[in-house]
Fold this sequence. Notes:
Blueprint: E1 5-6, E2 16-19, H1 23-28, E3 35-36, H2 42-54, H3 57-77, E4 89-92, H4 98-110, E5 115-117, H5 120-134, E6 141-145, H6 152-161, E7 165-167, H7 169-173, H8 191-204, E8 211-214, E9 219-220, E10 223-224, H9 227-234, E11 238-242, H10 245-255, H11 257-260, H12 263-271, H13 279-290, H14 294-317, E12 325-328, H15 336-350
Parallel strand pairs: 1-5, 2-3, 2-4, 4-5, 6-8, 6-11, 7-8, 11-12
Antiparallel strand pairs: 9-10
Helix pairs in contact: 2-3, 5-8, 6-15, 10-14, 12-13
Amino acid sequence: MKHLLATLxxxxxxxxxxxxxxxxxxxxxxxxxxxNAPVLSNExxxxxxxxxxxxxxxxxxxxxxxxVARNIAAHLDTTFAQRRQxxxxxxxxxxxxxxxxxxxxxxxxxxWRARQLDGGYKAYRQGTLKALDKxxxxxxxxxxxxxxxxxxxxxxxxxxxAGAQTLDLERLASHRGSLLGAWAGVPxxxxxxxDTLLAQDLRAFDPSQPVFVEAESRKIGAVALPAALLAAMxxxxxxxxxxxxxxxxxxxLQDYAQLFDDPESLKAQLQRMVGLxxxxxxGGWQALVDQGERVExxxxxxxxxxxxxxxxxCHAHFARLPQALRLDFRPNDADVVEQARVLLARLEAAGTxxxx
Length: 356
């Protein structure tokens, strides 16, 4: 029924977006703002799939239809019980097939103005990948470079508070980017989920204004940045953020407080550095943990791990780093937003080098 189909460019035309896939599929990734109203549970989808392979497509369809009908009925009594007459939901499943089609048909029989997303989540995913291939080249970036502990993420947040456009990749990835950068108790999004969040941010930017972004490697924890964004960042003008060694050590202890306050977890994370560093050196760092020498450990990591890694990575990839504007940043001070405003004024005064 083609008259019940809607396309991706009509997403904003609806009162609500409903994802009828299983909770596992929804958790992997979904259209931003969608709610999950599964017509098959995780377990029921396995049952139907097994019947399809081991018995027959007919038997799978018969059992699946009964399950879908019961689940839609349950949603009508609960999830959608208070929806008004004239409500306009957009409904999607994996490929815009039976699952979303069943709910769309039922809702229209009731009197709601439901539509089914043509191509389903698969079409949305293809649109996301296309956006991540095309959008990065339409924006202008200013890259905040500098070694770990210099406070780049704090400066990025301060720039946002000062009114600048910022792309916080570590926030989207739920990870600080370094080997010790996992957020305690916070899982990273899936790659698909990260891509969705990133595309959403890129679409929201004003192309006439620069976007500040922190220098990152290809991967932030377990998720990877799209090649087009990395290429654009590598060719962009840079601000090199500099902080004193003592400021950086203090900042690391504050920013990684949950990790430094859990000695056994910290020692386990340090153990992962074997291969990058000798067993003897890593053992020495673990001994500092046992001795409670947190400041000395932070200094050691700065000198022996973070600074050499920064020199290897940033200078190799960010072509305009040698011409960077240098910023002496005090990440632990209360006036970080004012420091950000000063940076914006300096960039404006620097002229065309930071407008292209």
